Amino acid sequence: MAEWNISDRQEYYDYMNPVGTFASELECTVATKLYRMNLSIYRELAGRYELELVFHNRVNVNYETARLLFTGCSENGHYDVLLPDSIPSFYVSQYA
Questions:
Q1: Do the beta carbons of residue 68 and residue 20 sit within 8 Å?
Q2: Which of 11, 48, 53, 61 lies 20 to 30 angstroms, CA to CA, from 90?
Q3: Is the pTM of this model over 0.90?
């Protein structure tokens, strides 16, 4: 939980920069907090060419939203940045 005690962008960069440091949903949430952004994380639905919203953290309706695609398993997955044009609304399923 040390990430929550970091309020400076450079300090957080230095904390996350060493080789072997990995990001989870927590680190993604902290980074978007520091950069004043909302966060949406998606997964691709197997064999359907659809994305499912699996995590959303809206900090402020006026902030831009960082959109990430998570692939792999929870222990060693990977996050890719999704650009707005890469997620048409008809391809996105949201959880209730």
A1: no
A2: 61
A3: no
Residue 28: phi and psi, rounded to 5, are -65, -40
Whats the size of the chain, residue-wise? 96
Q: How far apart are CA 87 and CA 3, in angstroms?
A: 29
Residue 76 in 3-state DSSP?
A: coil
- Of the candidates 79, 86, 90, the residue with the CA atom closest to the CA atom of residue 27: 79
Which residues sit opposite 78 in a β-bridge?
71
Q: Are 30 and 56 in contact (CB under 8 A)?
A: no
> What is the DSSP code (8-state) at residue 59?
S
CA-based nearest residue to 57, from 34, 90, 91: 34
pLDDT tens sequence across 33-74: 888 999 999 999 888 888 999 999 888 999 999 999 998 887
The candidate with the shortest Cα–Cα distance to 42, out of 55, 30, 31, 32, is 55
- Give me 35's structure tokens: 């950069």
